[in-house]
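quick one, 570 residues, struct below
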Amino acid sequence: MNESIDIRETGSRTGRPLLEIKDLAITFATSNGDVNAVRNAHLTIMPGETVAIVGESGSGKSTTALAAIGLLPGNGRVSAGQIFFDGEDIAHASEKRMIELRGNSIGMVPQDPMSNLNPVWRIGYQVKETLKANGLPSGPEDVAKVLTEAGLPDAARRAKQYPHEFSGGMRQRALIAIGLSCQPRLLIADEPTSALDVTVQRQILDHLDKMTSELGTAVLLITHDLGLAAERADKVVVMYRGQVVEAGPSLELLRNPQHPYTKRLVNSAPSLASRRIQVAKDRGLESSDLLTSDDVVVEKSKPAEVLQIENLSKVFKLRSGFARSTDFTAVDDVSFSIKRGTTTAIVGESGSGKSTVAQMVLNLLKPTSGRIVFDGVDTSTLNTKDIFKFRRRVQPIFQDPYGSLDPMYSIFRTIEEPLRVHKIGDAASREKKVRELLDQVSLPQSTMKRYPNELSGGQRQRVAIARALALDPEVIICDEAVSALDVLVQAQVLNLLAELQSRLGLTYLFITHDLAVVRQIADHVCVMEKGKLVETGTTDDVFDSPQRDYTKALLNAIPGATLMLPPEVA
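---
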């Protein structure tokens, strides 16, 4: 009697790992000679198991994963070691064999959606292309099902849209849909939820858990979020400077880290210890040293509130057919104010209107109604000369470091440009300022000579932060400014922002989906849902006594919030 055997079960029946990496070394050829990016790396993933690789930018996490799927850049190679997939060594497999494995056997969700989605193809076509390439049904209903499972509402309509019509979080969900569409045996997820709000993050990760339990799909999760790793992974592998320095069961490792680097990661994770006061403690300051809304010294000639948002609304015209359009209200009658020297965070799901508010405050979008008052002046009344001055006083840090840096500019020119445009200093003083800014964001001064494509995502975001600080602004609009950073650099940047605020009285408007970061850095919180402001208050009030069910759902979705408690408490 012949009996078909699900190939997904083969590894589990034999006790054989689905993916096993042994003594892996990866070398890149550069103009200055070979560079060893990964050395003696090792990890094991059993069928149905989730393993998380954590570590700072440049530690070798993504490089190790790319080697496992045969997608190393042209100048990279596996110089030593073995990569076994279901018992087969694929470290030096042919391109033909790797194409056979990709999709049905090994799927991947890359980190940056704008670099991995074709801007001239509709989202549905890109999903359909993946399904067809792997011999799966690819009709409109199949595409819609894939998008729905990845958390995209109204999938049939969304399938007809282009990537630029999606928010950052929606684009990431589209990538997740493509990665999961063929139900691979191993899914490599490289920061799959870094652009997603916490509720959608939970939905996506719940879906990955469902795949693991029902299909035996293994997940290799690359993340800088220690809370997410602790909550979602069976095992955690810690990488530092190209080497695996510690590995073990997730809760055991995070509750009792042995390696000094792992201890630093755990201590820096906002989702594991998220209190704004911790920023001060990390800098050796007492709580009384932190600026609060009552401590800010305001000149008598200036209003206490540097920004006032009054009944702000923004309506977009969406084309729905030939010569037809429909109104979409992205921001609906929003009002709040920000006192000098304080931090106000706007939180909410993707599409809630957070970034649209930020763009209107920056004078990059014109409000449909309502007004924005900066330092006592209605920004709608500013002329061209006044707007130029306004740009120096209010600076942005945007979400996507891949899209906000000019690929043709060196890092020096990128950071120096605001100084040159505003005619600040001479060439020598501007170079000195650039060097100081690079030091502030923990980048070596040699980075000045490099270009964005030579930097990791986290390094690019640090450059964007340095550029925003160049003009010594009074207000900084941070649109997901730390979402692309690993926890150590994130902690450094948050400490830096808090220190600058304490020393210079800076004001921050922080747009984020990471509520753990909000708890750490914000004085006040505004919660937005579908364009409306549904709850506002001090950070402690909103976190300790949320009034709306929507706010409670956001707070409950924070990953890893209770995992560092003793087992009997958690």
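Residues 273-293+300-375+475-482+506-562 form a domain with the Rossmann fold fold (CATH 3.40.50.300).
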